[in-house]
Amino acid sequence: MRATTIHAPHDIRVEEVPDAAIRRPEDAVVRVLRACICGSDLWAYRGEAARQPGQRIGHEFLGVVEQTGADVAGLKVGDLVVAPFTWSDGVCEYCVEGLTTSCVHGGIWGAVGHDGGQGEAVRVPHADATLVKLPADAVSDDRLLTALLTLSDVMGTGHHAALGAGVRPGATVAVVGDGAVGLCGVLAAKRLGAERIIALGRHQARTDIARKFGATDVVAERGEAAVAAVRELTRGQGAHAVIEAVGTGQSMRTAIGITRPGGAVGYVGVPHGSATGLDLGVMFDANITLRGGVAPVRSYIPDLMPDILDGTIDPSPVFDLSVDLDGVPRGYGAMDDRSALKVLVTF
After folding, report:
1. What's the helix, strand, coil split of the chain in %, to 5?
2. Which domain holds residue 335?
3. Residues 6+ apart with CB under 8 A from 206
4. Alpha helices in 192-340 (DSSP H)
5. CATH at 187
6. Most-buried pick from 220, 227, 250, 285 (CB within 10 A)?
7. CA distance 195 to 329
8. pLDDT tens, 152-197?
9. Distance of alpha carbon 47 from the chain centroid
10. Do residues 21 and 123 make contact, with C-beta atoms less than 8 angstroms apart?
């Protein structure tokens, strides 16, 4: 089969690799119909996250079950399924508590020795616990299928940030970051009943999506200027809930600076760079809470999927470029130079 591999910074290839195959009785093999490129994939692409030459890449996909192991009971060949970006066994203490990303038998697609999501097929460990069945007729609805793909990562991650920030009906929410996760954070905040949503971003195509998703205000400034602008919009108080979806020291400083006393920051931006941006003194004095981390999206899919199916939310606009498998290297380049927000890969 063919799959995407990374060999060095800015060296993404589509190559022939061994076919995805059952190794353990709880495995399934999924033929991929939709995949995508994540902003976190860019850290490997830029050389800021180590990868072995030839390692697979990609962790967001949905597709059709092509084969099941002897112990797989809840899935059958032909089922349409979505895969969260990590696999999990569903029975360890962390899974039972909903923290599937800490599963003692879990892992992430594209790890050494495992298939990545940007390929023709994927071996799925712990298939019964990991994969979520989708309505079979969704396969004929291109927009719906694309929207459902966001359940593999970005929609669930935006939702995780909103929950961590304590978004509630009537709250004022600010979102730091205009990437796909930040935009899904806007959508999640709107879904949870936020009254006012301030999106921080300076790219009009992206802030237009933010407004479509429910943002009531847009702040284009950065750093201290952004803090001042949000404070002015909120009568000097700041936001009850702040979503941090970037992962740099500056973005975290901004997030804390725009949080009102007693508020919370939900952070899901993958940390990079040496500075954390945390000022514990400021947080202590203002009773600011910090929650977040890697999102256990498998636990959120049952809650979010019905709202996508009935049209209550539609995250599909975060995809603004579509490529086939051969076009994946071009897709990485487009996301790296910010000419694309998020790239959809169709098979």
Report:
1. 35, 25, 40
2. 2-153+296-346
3. 178, 179, 183, 341
4. 204-213, 223-233, 249-257, 280-286, 297-309, 328-336
5. 3.40.50.720
6. 227
7. 40
8. 999 999 999 999 999 999 999 999 999 999 999 999 999 999 999 9
9. 20
10. yes
* pLDDT tens figures, 265-318: 999 998 876 557 788 999 999 999 999 999 999 999 999 999 999 999 999 999
**198 and 271 belong to one structural domain:** yes
Cβ atoms within 10 Å of 279's Cβ, excluding its own: 14
Beta bridge partner(s), residue 322: 344
> Where are the extended beta strands (E) located within 55-152?
55-56, 61-68, 80-83, 86-87, 107-108, 121-124, 132-133
pLDDT digits (tens, 9 = 90+) for 214-226: 999 999 999 999 9
What global pTM score does this model have? 0.96
Q: Cα 8 from chain centroid?
A: 24
Is the same domain home to 281 and 309? no
Cα dihedral 34→38→42→43 (10° resolution): -130
Integer Cα distance of 281 and 277 in angstroms: 12
Strands 217-219 and 196-200: parallel
- What type of residue sits at position 180? A
Lookup result for tokens 């593999």:
152
Question: How many Å apart are CA 51 and CA 271, to the nearest integer?
Answer: 17
Distance CA 271, CA 299 (A): 23
3-state secondary structure of 27: coil
